[in-house]
Amino acid sequence: MLRIALYPHSMELGGSQLNAIQLAGELRDRGHQLTVVAEPGPLVAHVRALGLEHVGIPSHRRRPDFTVARMLSRLVREREIDVVHGHEWPPILEAFAGPGLSGCPVIGTVMSMSVAPFIPKKVPLTVGTELIRQSALAAGHKQVFLLEPPVDTSADSPFVDGHGFREQSGIQPSEILIAIICRLVPDLKLEGILSTCDAVGELCRAGKPVRLLIVGDGRARAEVDQRAANINSSVGRELIMLTGELSNPRPAYAAADVIVGQGGSALRGIAFAKPLLVVGENGFSELLTPESCATFLQQGWYGLGPGSLGGGPAAIRRALEGLVDSGQMRSELGEFGRNLAESRFSLRQAAKTLERAYAAAIEQRDHAGSRLSEAACCATALAAYKINRKYQKWLGTARVDDSNSRSRVAAVLNQVRGSRTP
């Protein structure tokens, strides 16, 4: 039995932090003692519903915040914590700068599309795709485990009833409901959302019985609202529906006939036995099929550039049109996805991977001098990053999340693919 302090980067509704909490519950069920350290937010209720202890930290703080690092050190001493697990770079750095420098084992999880260059190289990491794992190893990280976004295949299943959601939303039984369930943010997601809106508009004009449901909220909400309003006006009905954020989106997944998405939302969709169209950026879209599956398992549930049907809204329309026209195709691809979710992406499999990562962190205790040297290197790299961010903000070119910037993602894809070229 391990005493684990789990520190998610956020308590907003979102795939990676929900995965972290679900895994905490699974680890608790496997006999470990979990303490969740987190800011206020909607997912705190989920932590408490699972019967996990929540230790609060301020929502308004620096990133990283050395007050939080000291708080983590105190928590480790008082609770005799065996390992601290930080999610994304600010919690990883705070865990390393606090209890890590005092000798407590630390591991990190990075579910962003790239690993920040100032994360300590000796901290064992888990990442979400094989390409990112290889890229992190090439950058000098010593131990990197593949932890694909897990799915609660018991709660997220074809047995969840979506009929009530369809009736309440005014969706007719004859309509093919296409659903996007994600945060509405510019990085990674916005291009695919808007392109899907355009594609569904074209399908409607062609006489196809479709509706598009968008569940979520975020900084890009106004832009998505405007695109939906324009298309609805052009077709003369509410073709595209936006619900905002739902604390429990399971009925929406269950109500859908087709899921469009990426990352954890995509995997959650296949757990409901729904056919999946993965969207990315630079025009990327691709159906999950037995033929495309290997690509997704390697690079993750995202992509850059045209897929097998071309790029942009036209390719999305072609993919969706095949699904709209064929109930058999929807059923076969839904069954394929569900089998994949059960065999590869269950919480149980993910918890086993985390236990191996915790054991590695505990075994690899470095001496104090090595930890201080690593801290100095990280501090130098972080300072350079902060200075560059300030310069970008001054220019007006700064992104909210550099780890998910298109250029960083493309660099990861190209670096590892290039290493395989003879």
Structural features, described:
This protein is an alpha/beta fold. The protein folds into 2 domains: 220 residues, Glycogen Phosphorylase B (Rossmann fold, 3-Layer(aba) Sandwich), CATH 3.40.50; 182 residues, Rossmann fold, CATH 3.40.50.2000. It has 16 helices and 13 strands. Strand 8, helix 7 and strand 9 form a beta-alpha-beta unit. The model has no long low-confidence stretch (mean pLDDT 91).
CATH class of the largest domain: Alpha Beta
Walk across the major sheet and give the strand order: 3-2-1-4-5-6-7
User: Can you tell me the CATH topology of the largest domain?
Assistant: Rossmann fold
Total helices: the number is: 16
Oligomer: single chain
Global shape: globular
| End-to-end distance | 47 Å
Taking all Cα atoms into account, the compactness measure Rg is 22 Å
How many runs of DSSP E, i.e. beta strands? Answer: 13
CATH homology superfamily name of the largest domain: Glycogen Phosphorylase B
The percentage helix is 40-55%
Largest sheet: 7 strands, parallel
Features:
single chain; 422 residues; alpha/beta; Rossmann fold; 2 domains; 7-stranded parallel β-sheet; 6-stranded mixed β-sheet; 16 helices; 13 strands; 49% helix; globular
Secondary structure layout:
Elements: E1 3-7, H1 15-29, E2 33-38, H2 44-49, E3 53-56, H3 66-79, E4 83-87, H4 89-100, E5 106-110, E6 125-127, H5 130-138, E7 144-146, H6 163-169, E8 176-181, H7 190-205, E9 210-215, H8 221-235, E10 240-244, H9 250-255, E11 258-261, H10 263-271, E12 276-279, E13 285-287, H11 293-299, H12 312-325, H13 327-344, H14 347-363, H15 368-395, H16 406-420
Parallel strand pairs: 1-2, 1-4, 2-3, 4-5, 5-6, 6-7, 8-9, 8-11, 9-10, 11-12
Antiparallel strand pairs: 12-13
Helix pairs in contact: 1-14, 3-4, 5-16, 7-8, 7-12, 10-13
